[in-house]
Amino acid sequence: MCDRCSGVMRPADPERVRAILFDYDADPGRFLANVQAVAQYGLAGDVHQAVAERAVEEAGGLALDLGCGEGRLVRELCKRGVSVIAYDLSATMLAAVRGDRVRGDATRLPFRDRSFGAVAALYMLYHLADPRAAIAESYRVLQPEGLFAACAPSRYNDPELAMALPPASPSTFDAENGPQLVADSFDEIEVQCWDAALVHLPDRPALALYLRGRGLSEAEIADAVDCIATPLTLTKRGALVYGRKAA
């Protein structure tokens, strides 16, 4: 048995807060593997559809998708007739998105105050050393009563893979610290958490694809696939945080 196979969940180190590596231009295949794994093996939809529906119901006008990635939320908004600007630091990601696109830093938005009815920052604030700057910028560019949405996994996500993944530690924005970071800027917040079996990996190739999406090297993936039995159902944990700007 290899040294990864103890199956024990390693405790989080509260002193080690880190920004998650931004690798979308250096290793776009890693992100695409993650997208493919979730699409093929996910047991439920992600947050994008819910955020798009909420934006339609509660926020008018133009929307801004910070860290738009390959454009999943952009597509959901467009399907609902919402005009949206896709914004990302990665030129590789922006190249895959149709419509209005802007490349830039989320902590210094090139937009006027009160420009948007809704701003989303889904699965991206943990890439920033200080996400508070991006959250404050989102507040600035929102119209009164505008809607902000951000989400991130828990630091205790995927416990079934604890023997293969790096030890749990806080990121700069995760399900545990994210709500307070949003509350520091916004007048009202709402938190929706998830903790459920949401991904089922039927075989070794599925596990390998999923681990590629989590950033493991080929050697680490080979080691883990030899250690971890499939089929395997993963517990996904995280939080979606809505912020509301006062009138």
Note down, in words, how this protein is organized.
- With 247 residues, the protein is of the alpha/beta class.
- It has a domain at 28-154 and 169-197 and 237-244: 3-Layer(aba) Sandwich (Rossmann fold).
- 30% of the residues lie in helices and 24% in strands.
- The protein is built from eight helices and seven strands; from the N terminus they run H-H-E-H-E-H-E-E-H-E-H-E-H-H-E.
- It has helices spanning 28-41, 48-58, 72-79, 91-94, 131-141, 178-183, 204-213, 218-227; strands spanning 63-66, 84-88, 100-103, 116-122, 142-153, 188-201, 232-244.
- A seven-stranded mixed sheet has the order 3-2-1-4-5-7-6.
- Strand 1, helix 3 and strand 2 form a beta-alpha-beta unit.
- The chain is globular and about 55 Å long.
- The chain starts with 27 loop residues before the first helix and ends with a strand.
What topology does this entry show?
Elements: H1 28-41, H2 48-58, E1 63-66, H3 72-79, E2 84-88, H4 91-94, E3 100-103, E4 116-122, H5 131-141, E5 142-153, H6 178-183, E6 188-201, H7 204-213, H8 218-227, E7 232-244
Parallel strand pairs: 1-2, 1-4, 2-3, 4-5
Antiparallel strand pairs: 5-7, 6-7
Could you give the distance between the termini?
60 Å
Rounded radius of gyration (Å):
18 Å
Q: Looking at the structure, what is the overall shape?
A: globular
> Which CATH class of one domain?
Alpha Beta
Number of helices: 8
